[in-house]
Design brief:
Elements lengths: L21 E4 L25 E5 L2 E2 L7 E2 L17 H17 L1 H15 L19 E8 L3 H6 L8 E10 L4 E6 L5 E3 L5 E3 L2 H19 L5 E5 L1 H10 L3 E5 L3 E3 L4 E3 L2 E5 L1 H9 L10 H21 L3 H14 E3 L3 H11 L4 H4 E5 L2 E6 L3 E6 L1 H12 L9 E2 L6 E3 L24 E7 L6 H9 L4 E7 L9 E4 L5 H11 L2 E5 L10 E5 L2 H4 L22
Parallel strand pairs: 5-10, 7-16, 21-22, 21-25, 23-24
Antiparallel strand pairs: 1-2, 3-4, 5-6, 6-7, 8-9, 10-15, 11-14, 12-13, 17-18, 17-24, 19-20, 23-25
Helix pairs in contact: 2-8, 5-6, 5-8, 6-7
Length: about 550
């Protein structure tokens, strides 16, 4: 077996698409020496956003935390000549005049809606970066939390909820394009004094502002806006739109997600859309459940965008009312209307791109699964996103489940297209596993083989091309093999699961390279003193 890989360390990468200093905004004021005074109240919320201060990006072992890079943030986008937006301005003026003519009650209602949207921001405005929402591309962080009125009433969560869905969104209002990149909630990051934590822990540690800072550093891009929606809000928004039309790729029967959803083209209610977006264990036999769930979330978000952008004023009003009850955002109502107007006419089949943060799954015995950011692939993806390109060169669809994993705007995927709506069956154990000794420690490949053979696998053992592997790897070739690769890792009790990108050359269904962590984790009866030289261990497979 020849290895075609290049070695990298997690600390060697310092940003996805450039890092450095860029300007943050605040509702408060700064003195000559940078002292920050208290931000103004909601009533004095100003539409003039003054850029202030510097925002430095740090990266460390698992994505950020220790290494600092200087320089200035330079957007790749060049603003075109200014155009008059008389239609939009007239529409906004008419809304304001209508409120004034309707009297104080209507204006008060407008104020209440605005106040609801801004409640609970927790100072996130201080870390957001200035942008012109209708004239230039910008990034927005979108979070879905698992809070709901039902859970509030039960009191089981103590009012503290997790950010189950994390999306970095790039919106280009000029070219009418948008990109949704889902981030793994279990991505392992170095959070400084808070230690190594999963990405969604940032929300619990520091609320929206710390979450924005964390994602901004991970992605290497400035974030200008923030929105957060809970379970109730998601359902109400879908219902306010009269449901959304989605081609559900496979039948969902997941009690943990809330119930059942049929496969095929259909109009989903708020409850059904939520089940689809929460379903994870329905995909246990197909691969990483979180990745499939995130893919369905992007599918439903695309359907929502399609419905919103084609809605009449009554439907839009109902949607905004629903948003105000359950959505927290820094955007004003005027900005929401302006953005919807700017994106009007966008075709979601060609102008909405989607993808998932590339990661490798690591199983830590006794502690569960973590995701490690594949830095090289992540950097390449974010460079494409920042340039206004699709995150991936081609649309990616999982053949086993029919789930759309990434869209490149080639028109082949429509959230409401009538596809097969059916999935193939999941895996059954079996096939050929190539096991290689990647640490030069006598007997470890045979020990791994002894664990896999009772599971029905044909196992071939031997030596890797070198013995410098510090971690055990389980490599697979097709997306549909992801679930079985995880099963192999769990059977071994150790291992990082990795989709082969052409780095590894092997004949078999799966490749297992046993690293030195096999002994360190206690999986082996061998010891470090038993390590052999390359020539002495050449007969290991015999």
């Amino acid at each position: 077996m020849d290895k075609k890989r290049s070695t990298y360390s997690h600390s060697s990468y310092s940003g996805a698409s450039g890092s450095g200093s860029y300007r943050a905004r605040s509702r408060g004021s700064y003195g000559a020496h940078g002292a920050h005074s208290a931000p103004s109240g909601r009533g004095s919320r100003s539409s003039a956003r003054r850029p202030v201060g510097d925002y430095s990006v740090d990266y460390g072992e698992y994505g950020y935390g220790s290494e600092r890079r200087g320089g200035s943030y330079r957007p790749t986008y060049q603003r075109p000549p200014q155009k008059k937006r008389s239609k939009l301005k007239v529409a906004l003026i008419c809304i304001v005049l209508a409120l004034v003519c309707a009297g104080g009650a209507a204006f008060a209602y407008f104020t209440v809606l605005e106040g609801n949207l801004h409640a609970g921001l927790g100072g996130v405005e201080d870390v957001l970066v200035d942008s012109d929402i209708t004239e230039e591309p910008f990034y927005m962080l979108l979070l879905g939390t698992d809070g709901s009125s039902e859970r509030d009433a039960a009191g089981d969560f103590g009012g503290a909820y997790r950010s189950d869905s994390i999306m970095l969104v790039r919106i280009d209002p000029v070219d009418k394009k948008a990109t949704l990149v889902s981030l793994h909630r279990d991505t392992l990051l170095d959070m400084g004094e808070n230690g190594n934590q999963k990405l969604n822990t940032a929300y619990a540690l520091g609320g929206p502002s710390y979450m924005v800072e964390t994602v901004s550093k991970l992605a290497g891009v400035p974030i200008s806006h923030y929105a957060e929606v809970n379970f109730d809000g998601f359902k109400d928004i879908v219902d306010a739109l009269g449901g959304v039309e989605v081609d559900v790729p496979m039948e969902i029967d997941d009690d943990d997600a809330g119930g059942h959803v049929d496969a095929g083209l259909q109009t989903l209610t708020g409850d059904e859309a939520l089940i689809l977006c929460r379903a994870r264990h329905a995909y246990d036999e197909y691969g990483d459940g979180d990745s499939f769930r995130a893919a369905n979330q992007r599918l439903v978000m695309s359907a929502i965008a399609k419905k919103v952008l084609s809605s009449d004023i009554v439907t839009m009003t109902n949607t905004v009312q629903a948003m105000s009850q359950h959505v927290t955002t820094d955007l004003t109502l005027t900005e929401i209307v302006a953005l919807a107007q700017a994106l009007n006419g966008m075709d979601v089949t060609t102008d909405l791109y989607t993808a998932m943060e590339p990661t490798s799954s690591v199983y830590i015995d006794g502690d569960g699964w973590y995701e490690i950011n594949n830095l090289k692939a992540w950097k390449a993806m974010m460079e494409r996103v920042d340039a206004g390109l699709p995150p991936t060169e081609e649309t990616q669809i999982d053949e086993a489940s029919g789930t759309v994993l990434a869209t490149s705007g080639d028109g082949s995927v429509d959230p409401a297209a009538d596809g097969s709506g059916a999935a193939n069956e999941g895996f059954t154990e079996g096939g050929t596993v190539i096991v290689r000794n990647g640490a030069g420690i006598s007997g470890i490949a045979a020990e791994a083989a002894d664990k896999l053979t009772p599971e029905g696998y044909d196992v071939e053992t031997g030596n890797a091309d070198d013995f410098d592997y510090s971690e055990t790897l389980i490599v697979y070739s097709e997306n549909s093999q992801g679930a079985e690769a995880k099963h192999i890792a769990e059977t071994l009790g150790i291992g990082t699961v990795r989709l082969d990108d052409g780095t590894y050359d092997f004949d078999g269904d799966f490749l297992v390279i046993v690293g030195s962590d096999w002994v360190e984790s206690g999986s082996s009866s061998a010891s470090g003193s038993d390590a052999e030289s390359a020539s002495d261990s050449a007969a290991e497979s015999e």
